[in-house]
Amino acid sequence: MKILNLYACLGGNRYKWDEVAIQAGIEIEVTAVELDEIAAKLYQERFPNDKVIVADAHQYLLDHFKEFDFIWSSPPCPSHSRARYWNSSNYETTTQPIYADLKLYEEILFLQHYYKSGKFVVENVIPYYEPLIQAQKRGRHLYWTNFILPNEVNDRGFKISQEKNELESLCKFHDYDFKKYNGSQSIVKMARNLVDYEAGKTIFETALNIVNKSNTNQMELF
Question: pTM here?
Fold first, then answer.
């Protein structure tokens, strides 16, 4: 099974996919696309069997979508987040208003209408506005997919306000030492935005079960 993992960062959503694949008795080939060279290097260390490409994920999707059986995309979320909007709507703060990055909806529309050969997931935060395209809400996130998610997706819901040492708590929560990263991004923001690996596991498992069931039904026809 060929998988495309876009805006891969440090692979939060990816972390438990091997477990799911082993249980299902399938082999997976994951191609990860990440623009940040340092994050891409750390991703490669974490998942040495994946093919890691340093590139613009938005363009890579357009050029290569037909090559994959499952696509996961987690476009950057800050321009859509409620927290940033609340900060920037108070003009006494230093957070400036910005346009919402509509590449998120470009990818959703593109996958909905052009991607016919497999299952896809586009993940993002719950925005400060009414979503322009209907999504499935699970925990603190919205998911646009071409399959139905379980009512309960195991999004463990990290509680930022309850943590005294946020970075250390996030390292434990994601089972990853974010202090390895020495690039230009904020480590804490990167850790906050990483997809909960339990949610990634549940969603991938759901997609895989649907694919396996479909393949079984096709076999029975013959």
Answer: 0.90
Residue ranges of the alpha helices (H) in 100-196? 103-114, 166-174, 187-193
Q: To which CATH superfamily is domain 2-155+196-221 assigned?
A: Vaccinia Virus protein VP39 (3.40.50.150)
Render each residue's pLDDT in the chain as its tens digit; 222 residues: 999 999 999 999 999 999 999 999 999 999 999 999 999 999 999 999 999 999 999 999 999 999 999 999 999 888 888 777 777 777 666 788 889 899 999 999 999 999 999 999 999 989 999 999 999 999 888 999 999 999 877 666 666 555 568 999 999 999 999 999 999 999 999 998 899 999 999 999 999 998 777 665 544 443
CB atoms under 10 Å from CB of 90, counted, come to 9
Instruction: Answer whether 120's CB lies under 8 Å from 70's CB.
Output: yes
